[in-house]
Each structure stands twice: as structure tokens, then as C-alpha cells.
């Protein structure tokens, strides 16, 4: 299988730009790490809207949800214990990200993926067999450990294995698998919601073991990345893997770049301390703000609370689950748009277009809900009004799926030099999980108190983050991952942080590797 240019020339050096069947296979298998993340996002919102699940584990929420129609629509699912069930996973993933960074650096990317799969498998078994709330939350914590490992290692693996001119497309495979996981979970929720005996939620939670098994077995057969092999002293193995994934023996320039980067990285004894240095300030800012902004788009409250949200605004039980299926389909197909366009249009164009579309959609959704329920939360939604609301939620989801969704993982994974790459990715995962936990834990309470204003809250953040991208994010399309420092040195703002000495040293290193 082939695609893209056969050879890419950057700064006088040549890099194979062909997609081989082997690199496609390795990236496809590694991307399946996104399945566990996506499946969990989708399944959580579904089971927490099922009567059988609520009545067994959260009877007070169930009783409130079944109360008379004059109950405030904004507040009828407000429960800190219910949101703890959903968001505890992200707190566990946050704590795990620091351990996962060490495992990823010392033992390699593939073994970090394996750890993620095996712990997620254990968590899914515990949740499927749960008999009380504590057992549920313990299972969620194990799932969180799995997500922490997978989200640390998979984006790095994909960025390091892919040819530079296809890095965006292959890395977004992680986000595509995430959307497939969400959609699969939504379909399972819809199919199992009304099973006799009320055990449909057990099927949904237990089936999380399927994507976990895929990434666990996949990690056993995948090679590690050449970058990781070189860094761990397996230079011969690294060159063999590089020749295999590029489909040519002409990998001299790319291999020498990796060796030079590894030698520089080996001189760094404390990557967590070094990442705070001035010359890494641009990358550190991106590692913190991109995942921070990604969560403040409000997407996770739409995706993992979609059935509950649709129930809250007046949809019937089955209709709310079907609406979540529709948004899941939109999410998946719009991600394909990003895969096709990211290495052609670039990262910035997708960020700016998607951000604008999401801002408009959030404002419209907030206004529609305000007109229907006002500040009291009383009212019922007509069919035509409900269709209009779902349409704009789908436009919002589509905008996210071809911009902040995939690029929120791609950009942090590609901007760091090797010596601080694991630490940088750990920070990105940590920020992402922390914000996901905070927003997940606070969402139903915020909806109860801010009402329709919650959607204006997220719209305001969309304006801030789109402005940040327009002013401060350089284009990284087609730049070899080991040459990324030059992008920062040429930026109008960040160039002053990457000093002339640092940029000159980087350029000299590049010339040396070319002349070897």
C-alpha cells in the first residue's frame, strides 16, 4: 500500500515519504488504543441514563428523575456521587500519567500500551460484575489507569512511526478509533437499554474488555519505535525497524537525525527539570494550553453525558439514546474529514475553521434551550424544536471532530524534541485528564446553576482558544519531528524564547547529520 510522496526533502535532507503496508498496519493496531478511551466516554453516559442502573446504584437520583414534570429540568440529574462514577476514571488517569511517562521512556512505547490494555481489561471485568457503588468506582479507577497509559503512549507511538508528510493523518487514527469507540458504545447502550431483567448496563460495562483485549494483544506483536529503540541502546534494531516501516534502505538522513537527537537526549538527566527551561517554553505552553482548551470546548460533557443531557432537555429515554448515536456517527465521519485534510490544509486552518463553527453552534444551542426552558427549567420540547437542537449539536460535534478533537492529541505529541518528549506528553495527558475530571464532576451541578448559560460559558472559551491559535500556534504540517525546533525559532513571538544560540546549535546539528 502506498500513498503520498515517495521522498520528502527538508533542509537539504531526504526523508522517505511513502506509506508502506507495514507502517499502516502498526499505526492501525496502535490506534486501537483510542477504542478504550472512546468506548468509555460513550458507555458511561448511556448506563447513567438507564433506569435499571440508576435504581440499583443511585436510587435517590432515580427517584428524582422519575418525579413529576414540574421538577426543574436543569437539575433533575444533579448528583455528586453519580458524576464521581463517571469522572473518577479521569482522576486515576491523571495520577497514572506520571508513572506512564517513566514506563514509556524506560521500557518503550509498546509496553506502556500493553500496561494500558491489561489494566483496562481488569477494570471492565470489575465494572461488569459490580454489586455496589464502591466496586463500580474501583473498576473505574482501573479503567483510568488503562486510559492514562494508552493516552501517554499511543499518540507518541503514532507520531514517531509515521513519515513526516503523513504524520497528521496517521496520528489522527487515534482520534478516529476514539470516535468508533464512542459510536460502538452508543449503539450498545441503545440495544441493551430495555433488556428484560435490567442487566443491559452489565453488558455495556463488561464489553469494555473487547477493545482492551485488542490493544493488549496488539501491543505484544507491534515493534517499538526507532526513536525509542535508539534511546534505549538498541541502535541496530532501530535501523531495521526504520527500514521496514519506510520500505526502503535509503533512511540514512532520518536515522542520523534520530541518533543525534538521542545523543542530545541522553545528556539530559532530569527531563522534568529541563522542560521548564526558557528554550522549551513554547512547547511547554502548547502542552498545557492545547489539552486545557480541548476540554473547555465542552465536548466531553456533550459526549459522555449526551443521553442524560437529551433526557434533561425533554427527550424520551429511547430518543435520547438514539440522539447520542446520531452525534456519535457525526463525530466519526467528521474525523475522517480531518484525516483527509490535515496534511494538506494544515493544523491551523482546521483549528480556526472548527473553532469558529463550534463557537456559533454553542451560542445557538444555549439560545434554543434558553427560549424553551428559560431560567426556571420548566417546559417540554416539541419534536421540531428538538430536531433543530440536535442539528446544531451535530454541527458543534462535527467542528470538534475535524479540529480540536484530533489536533488536541496530535499537536502536543509532535512539537517536543526527544529529550523531553515523554515528559511533555505526560504533561499534556495530565492537563487533559485533570480538566476532564473537573468538568465531568462539575457539569451536572453547573447545568443546574448556570442553566442555558453553561453553553455560553463554553462558547466564551471557544473565542479565547481560537484567538490563541491564530496568534501563537505555528504550522507544523510536513515538518520532520526531529526538525521541529526550527519551527519555533522562526515564529514571530516564540522565536525570542528559542535563542539564536539554541536555533544555531539545532541547525548546526542538522548540517552535521546531513554530512555524515
TrEMBL record:
PANTHER family registered for this protein in UniProt: SOLUTE CARRIER FAMILY 2, FACILITATED GLUCOSE TRANSPORTER (PTHR23500), SUGAR TRANSPORT PROTEIN MST5 (PTHR23500:SF74)
Protein name per its UniProtKB record: Major facilitator superfamily (MFS) profile domain-containing protein
Topology with respect to the bilayer: Multi-pass membrane protein
Species annotation: Oryza brachyantha (malo sina)
GO cellular component assignments: membrane
Major localisation: membrane
NCBIfam families with a match to the protein in the record: SP (TIGR00879)
Keywords tagged on the record: Membrane, Sugar transport, Symport, Transmembrane, Transmembrane helix, Transport
Segments passing through the bilayer: 21-39, 81-104, 111-130, 136-158, 170-193, 199-222, 286-315, 321-342, 349-373, 385-405, 426-447, 453-473
UniProt-listed Pfam families: Sugar_tr (PF00083)
Family: Belongs to the major facilitator superfamily. Sugar transporter (TC 2.A.1.1) family.
Keyword presence, Manganese: no
GO terms for MF: monosaccharide transmembrane transporter activity; symporter activity
Domain called Major facilitator superfamily (MFS) profile: residue spans: 26-477
Places the protein is found: Membrane
Record keyword Aminoacyl-tRNA synthetase present: no
Coiled-coil spans in chain: none
Amino acid at each position: 500500500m502506498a500513498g503520498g510522496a515517495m521522498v520528502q526533502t527538508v533542509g537539504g535532507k531526504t526523508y522517505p515519504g511513502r506509506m508502506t503496508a507495514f507502517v499502516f498496519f502498526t499505526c492501525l493496531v496502535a490506534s486501537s488504543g483510542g477504542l478504550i478511551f472512546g468506548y468509555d466516554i460513550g458507555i458511561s453516559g448511556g448506563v447513567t441514563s438507564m433506569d435499571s442502573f440508576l435504581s440499583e446504584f443511585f436510587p435517590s437520583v432515580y427517584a428524582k428523575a422519575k418525579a413529576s414534570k414540574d421538577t426543574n429540568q436543569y437539575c433533575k440529574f444533579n448528583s455528586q456521587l453519580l458524576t464521581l462514577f463517571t469522572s473518577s476514571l479521569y482522576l486515576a488517569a491523571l495520577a497514572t500519567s506520571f508513572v506512564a511517562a517513566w514506563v514509556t521512556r524506560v521500557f518503550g512505547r509498546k509496553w506502556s500500551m500493553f500496561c494500558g490494555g491489561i489494566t483496562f481489561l481488569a477494570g471492565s471485568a470489575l465494572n461488569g460484575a459490580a454489586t455496589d457503588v464502591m466496586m463500580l468506582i474501583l473498576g473505574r479507577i482501573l479503567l483510568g489507569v488503562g486510559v492514562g497509559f494508552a493516552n501517554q503512549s499511543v499518540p507518541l507511538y503514532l507520531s514517531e512511526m509515521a513519515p513526516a508528510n503523513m504524520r497528521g493523518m496517521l496520528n489522527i487514527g487515534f482520534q478516529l478509533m476514539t470516535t468508533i469507540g464512542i459510536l460502538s458504545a452508543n449503539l450498545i447502550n441503545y440495544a441493551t437499554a430495555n433488556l428484560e431483567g435490567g442487566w443491559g448496563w452489565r453488558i455495556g460495562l463488561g464489553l469494555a474488555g473487547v477493545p482492551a483485549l485488542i490493544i493488549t494483544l496488539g501491543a505484544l506483536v507491534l515493534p517499538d519505535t526507532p526513536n525509542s529503540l535508539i534511546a534505549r541502546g538498541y541502535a541496530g534494531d532501530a535501523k531495521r525497524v526504520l527500514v521496514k516501516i519506510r520500505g526502503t534502505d535509503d533512511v540514512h538522513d532520518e536515522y542520523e537525525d534520530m541518533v543525534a537527537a538521542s545523543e542530545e537526549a541522553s545528556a539530559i538527566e532530569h527531563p522534568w527539570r529541563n522542560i521548564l527551561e526558557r528554550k522549551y517554553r513554547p512547547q511547554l505552553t502548547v502542552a498545557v494550553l492545547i489539552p486545557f482548551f480541548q476540554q473547555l470546548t465542552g465536548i466531553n460533557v456533550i459526549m459522555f453525558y449526551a443521553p442524560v443531557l437529551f433526557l434533561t432537555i425533554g427527550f424520551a429515554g429511547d430518543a435520547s439514546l438514539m440522539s447520542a448515536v446520531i452525534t456519535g456517527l457525526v463525530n466519526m465521519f467528521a474525523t475522517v474529514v480531518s484525516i483527509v485534510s490535515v496534511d494538506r490544509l494544515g493544523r491551523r486552518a482546521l483549528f480556526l475553521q472548527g473553532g469558529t463553527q463550534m463557537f456559533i453552534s454553542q451560542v445557538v444551542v444555549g439560545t434554543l434551550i434558553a427560549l424553551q426552558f428559560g431560567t426556571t427549567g420548566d417546559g417540554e420540547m416539541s419534536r421540531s424544536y428538538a430536531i433543530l437542537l440536535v442539528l446544531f449539536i451535530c454541527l458543534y460535534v462535527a467542528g470538534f471532530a475535524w479540529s480540536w478533537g484530533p489536533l488536541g492529541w496530535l499537536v502536543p505529541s509532535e512539537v517536543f524534541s526527544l529529550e523531553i518528549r515523554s515528559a511533555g506528553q505526560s504533561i499534556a495527558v495530565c492537563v487533559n485528564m485533570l480538566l476532564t475530571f473537573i468538568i465531568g464532576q462539575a457539569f451536572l451541578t453547573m447545568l443546574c446553576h448556570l442553566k442555558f448559560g453553561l453553553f455560553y460559558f463554553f462558547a466564551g472559551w471557544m473565542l479565547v482558544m481560537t484567538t490563541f491559535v491564530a496568534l501563537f500556534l505555528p504550522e507544523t504540517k510536513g515538518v520532520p519531528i526531529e526538525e521541529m525546533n526550527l519551527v519555533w525559532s522562526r515564529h514571530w513571538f516564540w522565536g525570542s524564547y528559542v535563542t539564536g544560540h539554541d536555533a544555531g546549535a539545532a541547525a548546526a546539528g542538522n548540517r552535521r547529520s546531513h554530512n555524515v
